[in-house]
Design brief:
alpha+beta, three-stranded antiparallel β-sheet, 19 helices, 37% helix, globular
């Protein structure tokens, strides 16, 4: 009688066989199989099944080792899972409920494995003190971000990436074979100059099209498929923004289209890409650089040598931009910023803690100390983590049209001469409200708008000699209050209309600006601080000789 622990095995060396227990004891008419042919109980199979299994697996040409019958189901890598689902989607066999998006855990494992392999072991992800996680920012709304895997003290290194071995910058882009071919064989006019950001864009386009053949495939797969920045919005959403924001976005789109035309012509004449898609190729690469790049002052003498060779290159500060995998997944916060990035002496891009961070807590850095509309225009988000929704770097800009009536053409011309509300190089404006005051130019716009045509004609040629009429003080204060209140009313109206007219991010920006302006009204009942002295009062009596009026501008 056979015991419970007896496992019948087929002797593969001959017809005769014996019954053998799991520890190798011979208990009957079966012979013990050789050790190299012994397999665990769960993986037993008979000789007659071998041909069937072999014939079934020989027809697999998808590049994915699909689980076989009687074999253990091997867990697919994220890339294999995505390729399998794409194949099923092409064949209209995509299982219900499946998605082509990577899960958070798959994304984390994929980018870590890619970093280790790409850097040749220079990056050891096991030393990272963080991992990718999901954080709930609203009901049923989750956002991916970086979380601490252990308690971190100020100054602790969370992770570091060698810039020359793990980051994507000019040291990778310029020696690239496809970029060299583009620069050497593109037939474009002699006066055409490509900035490094445009060459960077070309690199991303070409390597995205290479797919798995690109050494950067793992990193490119981790990037978003699209970006919700205003230059991708539908025209109706842009048209319904306030004038200043609308002008900035359309000016950017115009520059984007010029760069697209130059790149499309160069890629076509060099024979690299004949069917460049504006949205899926160019705009994706452009916004990847715009939203995820760091400015890093690394030392790479090869760039200076290459300045002599490429006549189509225009060298500027953009060649210092880098994309740093994994670190670029850290989110921004103004109030809860608890980490920062820097380059150490060994040219590693280092993420380090600036505050105590608990295990499981999200890691934040500050992208830039900018107002909320800059975050929207540059990154496609609004920071809602600030206390009372108020950004400490917040400003709200105004235009001259908000101070004047349509018939006050001369007033607007004078404001233009005095560069009031002029768009600055960094998209800023000199006519705005910040946490402390209405700026000098904003108060100057209110003064000019209150002048009569006669007073405007008597304006001295040198505006420094102009003295604000004392009787206009109340009118100027009323004008400033009215301009601010009109902006608040317009934002309230925009937030209350249906979704089809205003983008959700635009409504969020109005919500933040509304909170800021309401607080400003409460804290600054008097907005006009550039007040002249009352001519009926002798200033020498009320003030010591040699002093001037202290005016907050």
């Amino acid at each position: 009688m056979m015991k419970d622990n007896t496992i019948p095995l087929l002797d593969q060396d001959g017809p005769s066989s014996n019954c053998v227990t799991h520890d190798g004891r011979n208990v009957g008419r079966y012979t013990i199989p050789p050790k190299n042919k012994y397999v665990p109980k769960a993986h037993l199979f008979r000789e007659k099944h071998r041909e069937t299994i072999t014939s079934t697996s020989s027809g697999n040409d998808s590049g994915i080792d699909e689980p076989k019958e009687h074999d253990p189901k091997r867990r697919l890598t994220p890339q294999e899972r995505l390729a399998k689902l794409e194949k099923q989607e092409r064949e209209h066999q995509l299982p219900k409920g499946f998605t082509k998006e990577y899960s958070c855990r798959e994304m984390d494992r994929m980018i870590r494995d890619w970093l280790r392999n790409f850097s040749g072991g220079a990056v050891n992800p096991s030393e990272f003190k963080c991992s990718l996680g999901e954080f709930e920012i609203a009901k049923d709304v989750k956002l991916r971000g970086m979380r601490a895997d252990c308690h971190l003290n100020p100054g602790d290194v969370i992770m570091k990436i060698p810039i020359l071995n793990g980051a994507l910058g000019s040291f990778v882009v310029m020696p690239d074979e496809s970029v060299s071919r583009f620069l050497n064989y593109c037939a474009v006019p002699e006066d055409t100059k490509y900035t490094f950001n445009e060459i960077y864009t070309i690199f991303l386009i070409l390597h995205k099209r290479m797919g798995r053949k690109s050494p950067w495939f793992g990193y490119i797969e981790s990037l978003p498929k699209d970006y919700d920045v205003p230059n991708t919005w539908e025209q109706q959403y842009i048209d319904n923004l306030f004038q200043r924001d609308r002008e900035i976005i359309y000016a950017e789109i115009e520059e984007i289209w010029k760069a697209y035309s130059r790149i499309r012509e160069g890629l076509s004449t060099s024979g690299l890409v004949q069917d460049l898609d504006f949205t899926n190729d160019f705009l994706w690469a452009f916004n990847t650089l715009k939203t995820r790049s760091f400015t890093c002052d690394f030392n790479d003498t090869r760039m200076h040598e290459r300045q002599k060779f490429h006549k189509f290159m225009q060298y500027d500060v953009s060649w210092k931009h880098i994309l740093c995998p994994y670190i670029d997944m850290v989110n921004h916060s103004t109030q809860f910023e608890n980490a920062d990035v820097e380059m150490d002496i060994k040219e590693n891009w280092v993420l380090f803690a600036t505050k105590h961070i608990k295990t499981g807590e999200q890691i934040f850095i500050s992208y830039d100390p900018e107002p909320s509309d800059h975050y929207l225009l540059d990154y496609g988000f609004i920071d809602l983590t600030n206390k009372g929704l108020i950004n400490p770097h917040e400003i709200v800009c105004f235009t001259v049209f908000e101070f004047t009536r349509p018939s006050q053409t001369k007033h607007r011309e004078l404001m233009k001469e005095l560069t009031i509300a002029k768009q600055l190089v960094d998209r800023g404006s000199n006519c705005y409200i910040d946490e402390y005051r209405c700026t000098y130019y904003m108060q100057l716009a209110a003064i000019i708008s209150c002048l009569s045509d006669k007073q405007l004609s008597e304006m001295p040629s040198n505006f420094d000699d102009f003295v604000t009429p004392f009787e206009l003080i109340d009118a100027i204060e009323k004008k400033l209050q009215q301009v601010v209140q009109n902006r608040i009313d317009r934002m309230v109206k925009a937030m209350s209309v249906d979704k089809e007219k205003h983008h959700d991010l635009a409504k969020t920006l109005y919500r933040v600006h509304y909170s800021f302006l309401k607080k400003f009204q409460e804290e600054h009942p008097v907005m006009f601080t550039f007040r002249p002295l009352d001519p009926s009062i002798d200033a020498s009596i009320t003030q010591p000789v040699g002093t001037t009026v202290q005016v907050l501008m």
